[in-house]
Amino acid sequence: MTAIALHRNGSVLRLELNRPEKLNAVDTPTLQALLDGLRDGAVDPTVRVIQLTGAGRAFCAGGDLTGGDTRGAVETANEVVQAIATMPKPVIAGVHGPALGLGCSLALVCDLVVVAESAYFQLAFSKVGLMLDGGASALLPAAIGRARAARIAMTAEKVSASTAFEWGMISHVVSDDAYAAELAVLTTALADGPTQAYAWIKRALLAATLSDLRAVQTVEEQGQRILVTTNDFADGKRAFREQRTARFTGE
């Protein structure tokens, strides 16, 4: 089973996170496969829209903390986010189930996000002694403002699909029954749309709202490299595996 399943339907390329047994948590090889798929889609003239989804019960449970190869994961995740942000074609996310950690970043950086109403978002980095990464430190405040971004980042609260829509995190929220149909209709509309106009719209919105994305990602990389060496992260990681609350000491 491949970590990223590629599906082609006419001018639509669907990239599906395909680790359902881990709720599509990503490690470095998975991220590299996703990056390769995005780059291939960017240069393929027959692809007019890219759809990003997750197999099974989740969109993406974030980074794999249960034994996957995560060497260089932060850097590769940043390249994935950059590839989506600078993609000269629309990228639409289909989110059902949880979108956690990097999964939240992947959804936020997509141009349109169709979310089933039972889904939710959570940036739970602080629960294991880490900071936001994957560009979330830029993506989140650009979408919902600094105060709400700080609230989500520091408290690690779950954000329901309806609240995410109300706050401006996502573009569409639909009933679970209507989710697949709505995602298909919107994807088809984008595939039939003015691709060159979409590219310039994306370029302008990126310049207006995320011009500092790369610089913010650099700070995130620096912070995570330090934080993964702390005692707080060590206990946070153990606590995650043992399903208990971490005991942080600030060290």
TrEMBL record:
Tell me the domain of life. Bacteria
Keyword Isomerase present in the record's keywords: the answer is yes
Its source organism is Mycobacterium gallinarum
Q: Which GO terms describe its molecular function?
A: isomerase activity
Species lineage, top-down?
Bacteria, Bacillati, Actinomycetota, Actinomycetes, Mycobacteriales
Official protein name in the record:
2-(1,2-epoxy-1,2-dihydrophenyl)acetyl-CoA isomerase
Keyword vocabulary terms for this entry: Isomerase
Q: Where is the signal peptide?
A: none
Family classification: Belongs to the enoyl-CoA hydratase/isomerase family.
Q: Which InterPro entries match?
A: ClpP/crotonase-like_dom_sf, Enoyl-CoA_hydra/iso, Enoyl-CoA_hydra_C
Keyword Flavoprotein in record: no
